[in-house]
Amino acid sequence: MNTAAPTLRHSLPGTATGTCHRPCHPKKKHAGLSAVMAILLCLLASCHYQRPDLEGKDLSKSTRDSLTYLYERHYTWNTNLVVRADSVSLQLLPLKDTYCKVYKDDHVVVAEFAVHPSDSVDSIWVKLAHSQNVQGWIRECDLMRQFAPTDSISQAIYLFSDTHASYFIIVFALFVAAWLIRAFRHKRLHMVFYNDIDSIYPMLLCLLMACSATLYESMQVFVPDTWQHFYFNPTLSPFKVPPVLSAFLFSLWLFLMVLLAVIDDLFRQLSFTAAAVYLLGLASACIFCYFFFIFTTPFYIGYAFLAAFAVLFLRRVYKTLRTPRYCCGRCGCRLAHKGTCPQCGVVNE
């Protein structure tokens, strides 16, 4: 079997008597069409990682080859991987029908690449090394399916992408939702979207989850290379990455910040038990939003639902802004501004 692989290896280096509280032309047509097409092309191009200019730099051949593999295959020599299948057989080429095995949670490193044009399954083969004595070759398609990068962010991505984990999360969310509905019938509880607390943050949290899920699935469907490169080379910084990936990372950071605001509002407005129950319901709502938009985005209807969700949120914000922001410290009557309460006559300052 013919191989064509580089021989060099290189790694990449108050109140008076009460208190006041906050609640809570043809040529023109052608020109316009051309402008629109140019904008669309720019947007599509900006969804990909920009390749470095390797020709004008004083780089050694091994470094240039390593960078080339990184931007073509998204990983390169000395990339660390971990086995996710129960066991994987590595072929001891050039010997035929001879194998060595690596097992679940074993760590391996990419040692070499080879091209086999006659292989009808996958022409790209990768040599992996577990130890000095356990080394072998595997098709790249099998490597992508049975191995994962060792980085903690990549491991989290793998976990959320795993089918079995997704089923478990869905079942858990359904169980919690059913329990909350039953509890709601016996005792009036605060729940997101229904008998909600006086705060826009819970709804904003669900909207951010929907945005994150839509962006995530959009990358998987339309720019899979961008997502795969991020998978092998993860970062938490939303800067110096393609705009679509930057938007995704920004949505995750915003999600965490809004979550803190939700917790703060909850424990100020509700008792500990009621707040804990509300958080369970909010978690179920977020899980539902995540899987709903993951499943509907490939059929394009997810974008329509996301737009409708955003409109509902803006209406909630508008309604909140028009709602009196104060309440009487004695009777709880809503007040448009500080001063004398029209119901009990207490002066709120």
Describe the overall structure.
With 349 residues, the protein is α+β, with helices and mostly antiparallel strands. 51% of the residues lie in helices and 13% in strands. The chain is built from 10 helices and 11 strands. The chain has a 5-stranded antiparallel beta sheet with strand order 6-5-4-1-7. Helix 6 (201-222) packs antiparallel against helix 10 (301-322). The termini are far apart. Residues 1-45 have low confidence and may be disordered.
- Enumerate how many helices there are, as a single number: 10
Strand order of the largest sheet: 6-5-4-1-7
Give the H and E element order: HHEEEEEEHEHHHHHHHEEEE
Strand residue content: 5-15%
Our Rg estimate from Cα atoms comes to 28 Å
Strand-helix topology:
Layout: H1 26-45, H2 61-73, E1 80-83, E2 87-91, E3 99-103, E4 107-115, E5 124-129, E6 135-139, H3 140-146, E7 147-149, H4 152-161, H5 163-186, H6 201-222, H7 224-232, H8 243-269, H9 272-296, H10 301-322, E8 326-327, E9 334-335, E10 339-340, E11 347-348
Antiparallel strand pairs: 1-4, 1-7, 2-3, 4-5, 5-6, 8-9, 10-11
Helix pairs in contact: 5-9, 6-7, 6-8, 6-9, 6-10, 8-9, 9-10
Keywords:
single chain; 349 residues; alpha+beta; 5-stranded antiparallel sheet; two-stranded antiparallel ribbon; 10 helices; 11 strands; 51% helix; disordered N terminus
Compact summary:
The protein is α+β, with helices and mostly antiparallel strands and about 350 residues long.
